[in-house]
């Protein structure tokens, strides 16, 4: 791609649709997402702080480079998928960060789940370099990342949404525009706070019913035809043996880690404090998941 394009020529990105796409962060989520870009015929140039994470992608034909700046030097559309706010700040603004070599008019899509305030900071820093930053956190977990069925919640300049959508639909089934930068993160954090509260409520309810002598499968069946029904009761039941194909039926392996849920609830807590919003159940859920981590369940599914 030619260097130094003006902002008004940004739309030329979508014209050359199968040009190189950068991908930074090849972890549990990033790797299957990058694989789906390759499957859709996009040449991928990638990097990860752990070189061994890059091997599989390299074997599938991706070009691997040493750091984010090198990715930005060669690709003008970049997706990042990183564990937390400090990683995002480092990858974008660090000494070997994207913004060191970013081309004017580049589209930068961050699918990490981080503090919306950090997304806004990154957008301002990118804009100074003539690039466009959008936050696009995901819901759906590792399974949906592999099957290309993620939901993306996108925040950023609306005029750029179509360009982002083109790439994101290769990796997800739903791509929803939420508003200005940071609103994608806001939607994700709100969903996961409710998910945690619902899972704890489902677990308490199932536990009480079992101790009252009810068969767990029967209780789940009754809940799921009654007003107490929720996603945690009908799709992701936390009691072993009630449902097949969920982590509770497999020693709570895989799925969405307790540590990640605790992190997201920490973000909910921070944003609630910053906006002076009372979230008593969200706060309690945060503490319960932190206790689970402290007791050795950090790597187990949040159910």
TrEMBL record:
It comes from the Eukaryota. InterPro entries: 3-OH-isobutyrate_DH-rel_CS, 6-PGluconate_DH-like_C_sf, 6PGD_dom2, 6PGDH_NADP-bd, HIBADH, HIBADH-like_NADP-bd, HIBADH-related, NAD(P)-bd_dom_sf. One of its GO terms (biological process) is L-valine catabolic process. Pathway: Amino-acid degradation; L-valine degradation. The active site is at residue 188. It is an enzyme of class 1 (oxidoreductase). SUPFAM superfamilies: 6-phosphogluconate dehydrogenase C-terminal domain-like, NAD(P)-binding Rossmann-fold domains. Residues 20-179 form the 6-phosphogluconate dehydrogenase NADP-binding domain. Its EC number is 1.1.1.31. GO terms for cellular component: mitochondrion. One of its GO terms (molecular function) is 3-hydroxyisobutyrate dehydrogenase activity. Pfam families: NAD_binding_11, NAD_binding_2. Coiled coil: none annotated. Its main location: mitochondrion. Belongs to the HIBADH-related family. 3-hydroxyisobutyrate dehydrogenase subfamily. NCBIfam families: HIBADH. This is 3-hydroxyisobutyrate dehydrogenase.
């Amino acid at each position: 791609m030619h260097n130094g394009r003006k902002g008004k020529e940004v739309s030329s990105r979508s014209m050359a649709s199968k040009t190189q796409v950068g991908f930074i962060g090849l972890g549990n989520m990033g790797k299957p997402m990058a694989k789906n870009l390759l499957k859709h015929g996009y040449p991928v140039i990638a990097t990860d702080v752990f070189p061994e994470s890059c091997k599989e992608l390299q074997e599938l034909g991706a070009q691997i480079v040493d750091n984010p700046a090198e990715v930005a030097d060669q690709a003008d559309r970049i997706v990042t998928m990183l564990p937390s706010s400090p990683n995002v700040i480092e990858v974008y603004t660090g000494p070997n960060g994207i913004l060191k070599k970013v081309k004017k008019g580049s589209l930068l899509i961050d699918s990490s789940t981080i503090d919306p305030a950090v997304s806004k900071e990154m957008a301002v820093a990118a804009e100074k370099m003539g690039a466009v930053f959008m936050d696009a956190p995901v819901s759906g977990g590792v399974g949906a990342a592999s099957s290309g069925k993620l939901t993306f919640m996108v925040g950023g300049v609306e005029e750029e949404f179509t360009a982002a959508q083109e790439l994101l639909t290769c990796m997800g089934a739903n791509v929803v525009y939420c508003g200005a930068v940071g609103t994608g993160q806001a939607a994700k954090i709100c969903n996961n706070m409710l998910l945690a509260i619902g899972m704890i409520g489902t677990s308490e309810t199932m536990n009480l019913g079992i101790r009252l002598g009810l068969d767990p499968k029967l209780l789940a069946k009754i809940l799921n035809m009654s007003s107490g029904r929720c996603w945690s009761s009908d799709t992701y039941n936390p009691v072993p043996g009630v449902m097949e194909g969920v982590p509770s039926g497999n020693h709570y392996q895989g799925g969405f880690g307790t540590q990640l849920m605790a992190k997201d609830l920490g973000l909910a807590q921070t944003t609630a404090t910053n906006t002076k919003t009372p979230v008593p159940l969200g706060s309690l859920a945060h503490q319960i998941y932190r206790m689970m981590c402290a007791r050795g369940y950090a790597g187990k599914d949040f159910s």
